[in-house]
Fold these 3 entries.
Entry 1:
Amino acid sequence: MKYTAKQIEHKGEKRIAVYFANDAALIARFKKLEGARWSASLKCWHVGDTEENREKFKLADVLISQLADEKDNNRTIEQLNNRTIEPIDQSANQLISTSSNCNVTITIKGKQIFIKMPKKAVDTQFMTSFRYVRWDKKRLEWVIPNYKNNLDMLNSYFDKRINELIIEETKQFDNLTIREFENDNERTKTLILSEAGKEKIEKYMHWLRSKRYSESTIKTYKEALQLFLKYFNDKVLSDITNEDVILFNNNYILKNKLSASYQNQVVNAIKLFFSKIENKSIDPELIHRPKRPKLLPNVLSKEEVKLVLNAHSNVKHKTMLCLLYSCGLRCGELIRLKPEHIDSKRNILIIKQSKGRKDRIAPLSNKIVEMLREYYKLYKPTLYLFEGQTKGEAYDERSLQLVLKQALEKTGIKKPVSLHWLRHSYATHLLEAGTDLRYIQEILGHSSSKTTEVYTHVSTKSIQNVKSPFDDL
């Protein structure tokens, strides 16, 4: 096992930090050691500084290095510059051959720290643990932001291997923003939310619940706001401005090619948070929304729908897909249905508390009523109309998606059909059959008629009657 071991002080406790390649087998071996823990801040595994562990990792029984022992965590760069760099002392801290005792040069220039050193696997792993790190191919050196914590970590890790500490500018940039050093947007996923940010998000969630927002909306807004605050976790909340929202949209949303609808969700979460919770330096009214693309709904022909609905011989699977299409239901609405929501005498289906916390009704065909009766006799559901393997628990949404996928495989339809396509197809087929747009709006549960009007663009009934002038040539 190739590694570098070093005595450190972590959270007031003497520990031994061990740096090694990110390998599952090595991690599994290290976890077996008593008291082994991972430090997210130091980006290393560590164990207790005991005589047994010092012997195991070939460390002499000496005090922790002067830099790690210093209690004043607010040292300035001038103080570090005046610190005497001692020569390498093998007896004090033995470094394994994979991390040779060659000299390291650290240059601090303005907003950046440049680290020049022999390229070794263990050192490379340590350097890549920094946020916003990049490798300068021309100068053959690592570049990281000039944060005080970054400098402390460098000194603690390299310690007596530092040959030269060059300071060309003494100004610190503790609040350097992410946009100046973000080279890998994937790193945003691993950023840690500050304690202040966590408290604000908890307060935000309490406010949303008090306003009776749905749990799905609360979850969406929470995740969106967490991402935004993590992105600017080096900034005080009161310092975040509209300019930061624009930078976030450009440097994260657009660079990662995320959808306009996702961007809109983030904008909604940010606007609501800063207008109701923070209400400081950001003007929610000036946050612009993305221009959403005008996409046509995906629709299957009646022939294709018939093939999909008849693909399954399993009564439950077939009934679920048929009911989904015959009433234009959303997936979530179907799996939340209960037997009492079916009014077979009036041939209507009652959909309770659907999107927007609205109740509505949809007409039931005689054919689907007969299918539901047959299904009920066979499965005898207790709480939900469609239950999973456990009685009283609603059918899983992912399982329903798999049911559709299996139907598509049986029919040979190659289109990327989703469950929502059946709802779109239902609305389009109603329109083509001459149903008034207002009734379709009510059946689907749309708040605005503009939402329903999109189906006029995919209905082929009128378009097919248009004669092309090409036929007269």
Entry 2:
Amino acid sequence: MKLNNTHDAVAAMQGAGGCEDCFQMSLGLTRSLCDTPQPRWIGKDYYTASPRVAVVLINPGGGGPSADPTLAHEANLFRQFHRTGDYQKVRDYFTTAIRRGDRWLSWYRDSFGLNHDEIAQLNIAWCPTRENRYPGPMLRHCFSKHTSRLLRTLEPDVVLLSGSATHPFAADIKRLIPHSEVVRTIHYANRGANADKLEEARRVKEIIAAKAVEA
């Protein structure tokens, strides 16, 4: 029987607060205005969904200009989360963004038929950087220290690796969660032909449907 590990997932995200490793590794990385690891989306019904679907992207946003009031608000919200562990405020913030029509969710909802309340979304790299630089050593270190822990608590049935930069982590995730179906798919901002995107949507929907039968 799968357990509801919401508390453990929140603890994994909160526990990343204060991590400076990648900015001390001589990689030439500089923090953006949002100077803390970003907690991500866990739908309120994720742990009762069948199947559980986790969408994995490569990095968070937040590398824009310091004058952007939205980024300043996010930075304060995420710092507060790392201090208090109050995930509900983070969930409320993301819920508002989703209802506003944030681009990332619309692709997974409209193309793959996913309900945002029933999925989780996380990144390989947890911190935004100036110029959106994410070298391999940073990705590997963050995956090993933070992402793998969160994935173990989420225990997804299907992992959608969204975008080619995430695809090298397929084998690592399969070792972490052997029962999961790890699917390499396109990024939501893919600029390919519509026919190709429709075919990819059909393929992924079939995989998710098959896992729902198994779960």
Entry 3:
Amino acid sequence: MIGEIVAAGAAAPDSRGLIAARKLFARTLETPGGLKIQTIHAFCERLLHLFPFEANVPSRFEVMDEAHQEELLTRARRTVLAEANSHKGSLGAAVQRITDECGPDGFEDLIKEAMRHAAIFARAGYAIRRRFYAVLSVWPRAAMLC
């Protein structure tokens, strides 16, 4: 084990260093409550639960699991699409055209793919996003993305 530590680039420990390391290891194992090994996500969640006021989060928040997150995203997409379809303007026409070309399943896949890249759109700024949606609304090859 010492050979692996030295191979990683650390200096070879002397006998006093080894004794100190063993004592530190023993104290760590004997810590009240035991040694806690967590993922960074679990650690951050624990911190937020310990200090909700400082973090400006509700004190009894719960982390959403993937299934619940997917359900909420699906409901939100359907609500937005229903809203867009109810308007007779350019957005409603664009949604209708893409839905017609992709079909309902293909359109859902297209929206999921766009959401995977949402951070890019967020960084791009409002003007670029607006141009993207305008182009998408008239682009005849949008079905190729489906």
